[in-house]
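User: What would this chain look like folded?
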Amino acid sequence: MKRYLVGALVLSLPTAVMAQAIPASTYLIKAGASDLFERQSGTVMSSSRNPKVRSFATMMVRDHGQSTAEVKAAARAAHLAPKAPRLDTMQARNLTALRNARGEARDRLYIEQQKAAHQDALALQQGYATDGRVAPLRRVAGKIVPVVQHHIEMLSSM
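Assistant: Here's the prediction, encoded as structure tokens.
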């Protein structure tokens, strides 16, 4: 019986460790970088010849500008001062690749990058909405989740 209890405890340990909330400062950095990538890549794609891609890119600039404003307001409400957003290494590489691509290949690359970026954004927002410790940020993350889910739905039909 002891062996089963120990085994169950060991198996549940990674889940318990993974369920720990990320610090508010980390959430702010990641959310800011995510929105910045969406806005910058959306701006690059505003010249796409594909009307669906161009429309989606325009929506990304608008929606992620809105979520940036909401996260900043929530941070201020929590007496936090978020730093100016910066792309992480992978986002910077992806943006460079997008800028260098042309035509339909660029459209395909954009959609591929958006699918991955939105999965990451969804995990971040859902995680903070569930486990975040700063109430205003937790509320705004919960508000952002359905928007990101809608973006993912749109991407799956492109």
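The chain has six helices and no strands. If you want, I can go into more detail on any region.
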